[in-house]
């Protein structure tokens, strides 16, 4: 039995190069700020790229690898991620008021590998969410919220177009609506845009998700990021609801006591005893 092996599903382009090296590190999730696994791929032929490591897990699953059994039955799937999502919270925190060099922005004592994000961030990408200030060879950045929202809005619109053309349950339902309501094209576009908002909001804080929702023209109460709840909270809510439904606070009903049945013999004795004196009466003076 081997427990120190993991099963990854890679795209061919990730492993086709012989000199490519891959390393998995822990970085802060841009939405939850908790530890999340990411993969850096470095190669002499291509720039360094970043992937988030998604995990598919089911109980009672193992893998047969050559002549051994891997008891860890999880499936890990690296998918590309825009590194700007991970850098955005650090820009908001460190350089909202003044321009700061990038190497001083990407500092996190609990996640030392955060500085490696500089390898996957060309200067032209950073200019999408920050203003550049140059002094000789030093490049400093100052966070620009207007630019950041414009970048996110553009990303949502591009993603919305992809969702509208992809085949799948969402696309089929939208096509069905389109056939039934040909005059409601705007409604279809709104639906795909709202779906794109939900996907992008998964990489943003709740506050930033609300700002993006308003920037896209959705009421704040429609912001899908508000619905982000942990599985534990959802399960707890379901359990409480079930217990509440099963707990019936009713007042017990007191039933009248059943009338005792008297036999004929008992009735005859009671009739004979009526009018007779008790024994103690004969001893009274």
Automatic annotation (TrEMBL):
UniProt entry keywords in alphabetical sequence: Nucleus
Entry keyword Nucleus: yes
Rnh202 triple barrel domain location: 19-82
Gene Ontology BP terms: RNA catabolic process
Cellular localisation: Nucleus
Keyword Amino-acid biosynthesis: no
Highest taxon above the source species: Eukaryota
InterPro entries cross-referenced by the UniProt entry: RNase_H2_suB, RNase_H2_suB_wHTH, Rnh202_N
Residue ranges constituting the Ribonuclease H2 subunit B wHTH domain according to the UniProt record: 85-212
Pfam hit, one: Ydr279_N
GO cellular component terms attached to this protein's record: nucleoplasm; ribonuclease H2 complex
Similarity comment: Belongs to the RNase H2 subunit B family.
Annotated function: Non catalytic subunit of RNase H2, an endonuclease that specifically degrades the RNA of RNA:DNA hybrids. Participates in DNA replication, possibly by mediating the removal of lagging-strand Okazaki fragment RNA primers during DNA replication. Mediates the excision of single ribonucleotides from DNA:RNA duplexes.
Subunit structure: The RNase H2 complex is a heterotrimer composed of the catalytic subunit RNASEH2A and the non-catalytic subunits RNASEH2B and RNASEH2C.
Protein name in UniProt: Ribonuclease H2 subunit B
Organism the protein comes from: Anopheles merus
